[in-house]
């Protein structure tokens, strides 16, 4: 269930800054038609940091409703307070979500033991499968493979999204955690190489605007057709990079709006719209990737 091209879905907002559920429904249909393997609702790209708790829960539940069992939905449930992450996990229990994606606690910089105890408490509080999420560039804490190995012994901690870009961790994590522990890339630019090194897939920003290409690429890669997958990846590489020319999800929401995938490219403060100087770079990357405006 947790493999292939999974999208870190944007949360569309209307011109007033409220959640645009009509656009959300359209996005779900777009990903089902494109062959996306799973949707992550309200992760970092979904602006989890600026949604209220009620909005967070509603967006996940509406995504589930729109999907209607046709594609797995993974709920973003991370928080830098353990009790809050537990609350989110419990709120989605029994709803039909396939699992939870839980980012390492940000800002408060826990130790490795603190990370272990954080995730252990979450795992013990819910029956839902838990995917760890390590993204030190955003959280200022790096969960080491040895800590992941301790957590992998807990029954419902099933995998990790690794956004370090460090491909050497794939082999090390496999050695420490075993073949069945799911490893997902959180870095589009190195995602294909991550799978070639033994990973299981990607949770992707690029898939928001190039869903079919990403789905095809990872189907090829996971079936051993790395050269064919690399042809697609080479075409998408400028897009992988330019979608981070400013803080995610600023560029990808602008791109999704330009492509007509969402009605508005609105963000919530402190994020602001894509700068004029960056727009030509993102538009050029879309053109080079053959993702047409």
UniProtKB/TrEMBL annotation:
Active-site residues annotated for this sequence: 133 (proton donor/acceptor), 161 (schiff-base intermediate with substrate)
UniProt KW Lipid biosynthesis keyword: no
Binding positions for pyruvate per the UniProt entry: 45, 203
Reactions this protein catalyses: L-aspartate 4-semialdehyde + pyruvate = (2S,4S)-4-hydroxy-2,3,4,5-tetrahydrodipicolinate + H2O + H(+)
Site feature: Part of a proton relay during catalysis: 44, 107
Enzyme Commission number(s) from the entry: 4.3.3.7
Annotated positions for site L-lysine inhibitor binding: 49, 80, 84, 106
PROSITE patterns given in the database record: DHDPS_1, DHDPS_2
One Pfam family recorded for the sequence: DHDPS
Cellular component aspect of the GO annotation: cytosol
Pathway(s): Amino-acid biosynthesis; L-lysine biosynthesis via DAP pathway; (S)-tetrahydrodipicolinate from L-aspartate: step 3/4
This protein's UniProt keywords: Amino-acid biosynthesis, Cytoplasm, Diaminopimelate biosynthesis, Lyase, Lysine biosynthesis, Schiff base
Subcellular location: Cytoplasm
First-level EC class: lyase
PANTHER family in the record: 4-HYDROXY-2-OXOGLUTARATE ALDOLASE, MITOCHONDRIAL, DIHYDRODIPICOLINATE SYNTHASE
Entry protein name: 4-hydroxy-tetrahydrodipicolinate synthase
Organism: Photobacterium chitinilyticum
